[in-house]
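Hi there,

I know you've been waiting on this one. I reran it after we fixed the sequence typo, so this is the corrected version. Both the input and the resulting structure follow.
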Amino acid sequence: MSGRHEAPGRAAEPAPGHGPAGHAAPEGATAPSVVALGGGHGLAVTLEAWRPLAGELTAVVTVADDGGSSGRIRREMPVLPPGDLRMALAALAGDGERTREMTELLQHRLGGTGVLAGHPVGNLVLTGLVEIHGGDTVRALDTLCGLLGARGRVLPMADVPLDLVATVESVDPDDPARTRRIRGQVAIATTPGRVRDIRVSPADPPVHADVLAAIARADVVCLGPGSWYTSVLPHLLVPRLRAALAATPARVVVVLNLEAQVGETDGFSPEEHLRVLQAHLRGVPLHTVIADAEAVVDRRGLLSAARECGADLVLTSVAASDGAPRHDPARLTEAFTSVLASGAGAR
């Protein structure tokens, strides 16, 4: 399942006839079944980009968030942290006027200074639905998908809340060999120093059967963009999830970040992001790497790193046109369209 490698410095061109307003699966092809893995804003933009193209779209969402509203809820109640799940639901919500109003309500953060201050309404609604459904998070998510007219499905990457545990290098110049063991997503993201390794706790959490089934029948599995160590890599650290990814016949696509993230990947180049990912694949194939052409300084180095993974490199414009370090959903859709048109989405 390998297409052509892009020559260094050459941007991949979108398939002809598919502008931002008219995306579709390549002519004669069936709309693919897509599984997108991640969390937070990175997963939300990926879902928005895949929506016009996918026949079946499933979000598999990280459940390791321990900060803000999600952290407060998971400390007080026996539920999965709802924040990243809520964001994925909002990204897949339908386009009707009532649906837009409902989505705006779920995304609204309560004001004031009391115990509810800062909670997005959707976090509370999802937590309430989990209680109503006897602790069944997947049923609660499916209920909200129905209420939102969602164009896809949202599933948690594990059936229990996860903690991330990382080894972080010291930033003390007098003790460069010293490392610290940091526990928790927020602490890892905010602790100065490069992350050396990361693991999940519990080490082998249960994974819902619907997650494994979606990966098994997928035509495309998409990783990234997002916080590399706390949103992208954790999916490869769950043994049952990694085994499903290793066994799927799907095309595995990774979207690289536009810049290094302070506290997680300080100073990382795009090729370093890719090499860290490669070290965690452990049997999971990688077929296509998408990177923003303007964010890549060493194109030959990134091409070499992609080839070491056995992957094709697609260099194109996927960043927002206003210069902000965020991906543009319409441009990302064009990049995905070009991947599908090249035959990358076919089994």
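Quick highlight: Residues 66-156 form one domain.

Best,
R. S.
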